[in-house]
Amino acid sequence: MISKTSHKKLFTKAPIVRLQGQPLLLFSEQYGTLLQALETKKVKIFSECRNGFCGACKTRIISGKVSYLSEPLAELKHDECLPCCCIPATDLELDLSAEGAAVVSFCQPKQINNTATTLTLQKEVFEN
C-alpha cells in the first residue's frame, strides 16, 4: 500500500527552469545540481567552484525558489543563488542568456486527420 506521503512524492511536478523567459529544461535528480543542469544544456555561466573560488557562479533569480544541498559559503542577496550547490524548489527563471544553449521551443499546432490538433515540442539551439 502506498502512503499519502509517498504518493505525493511520486507525482510531484518537475520544476521548469527558464532563462530570461525562454524554457530550458524540466529539472530532475539526474542533473545533480542546478549548475550541472545548466552546463549540460550548454548555458554560458562563469564558474570557478571546482577550483575553490566560491561565489563565482552567483546568479540572479528573476522568479522562483531554490533549495540548497549544502550551505552556500558566499554571501547572497535575497534574489541570488549559487547554482553549484542548489536545486530548483519551484519553477525557476534565471537572469542568464539563452544564447547558444539547447532550449525547448514550441512548434505550431499540427492538424491530424483533419480533426485533432496537437502541440509538439522541438529542441533547437537558441541563437540571437
UniProtKB/TrEMBL annotation:
PROSITE patterns on file: 2FE2S_FER_1
Domain 2Fe-2S ferredoxin-type: 32-88
GTP-binding as UniProt keyword: no
Alphabetical list of InterPro entries matching this protein: 2Fe-2S_ferredoxin-like_sf, 2Fe-2S_ferredoxin-type, 2Fe2S_fd_BS, Beta-grasp_dom_sf
Pfam families the record matches: Fer2
Gene3D superfamilies hit by this protein: 3.10.20.30
Keywords: Ubiquinone
NCBIfam families: PRK10713.1
Organism: Shewanella glacialipiscicola
Protein name: Ferredoxin
